[in-house]
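queue> pop job 88
queue> type: inverse folding (structure -> sequence)
queue> payload:
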């Protein structure tokens, strides 16, 4: 069985309303069982760390929880809520979500992703969420479809 390319977009939020959290949970869960595609970190320094920092959740504690408990996504959200005393600061979540949605890759990264996907860079796709989606889909296709 091939290792899994995560295809949950950073632009997706779960019931708590936190963008990228479902993707972080998926990547950390796959990484915990050594089933995450080698091109992906289980918890990287970009959006993954932004989410943990924005929620005030310790990285190692989160990764250990995922590894030891193997929670469903709702269970992971419940764990985070428990860590935060039962609620999240809505202003902090809005700030975090705005940071994720508004992040722009540098020109070289944008060009690399678009080139790999066969898309001419006309300057229309600039946000990291959509560029990362294209990157994921390209890697998925190359591994699972095109062989």
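queue> result:
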């Amino acid at each position: 069985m091939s290792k899994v390319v995560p295809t949950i977009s950073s632009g997706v939020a779960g019931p708590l309303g936190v963008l990228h959290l479902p993707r972080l949970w998926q990547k950390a869960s796959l990484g915990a069982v050594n089933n995450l595609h080698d091109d992906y970190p289980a918890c990287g320094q970009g959006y993954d760390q932004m989410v943990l920092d924005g929620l005030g959740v310790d990285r190692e504690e989160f990764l250990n929880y995922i590894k030891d408990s193997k929670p469903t996504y709702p269970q992971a959200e419940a764990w985070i809520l428990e860590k935060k005393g039962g609620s999240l600061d809505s202003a902090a979540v809005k700030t975090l979500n705005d940071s994720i949605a508004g992040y722009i890759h540098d020109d070289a990264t944008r060009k690399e992703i678009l080139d790999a996907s066969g898309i001419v860079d006309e300057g229309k796709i600039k946000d990291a969420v959509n560029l990362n989606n294209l990157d994921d889909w390209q890697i998925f296709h190359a591994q699972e479809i095109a062989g």
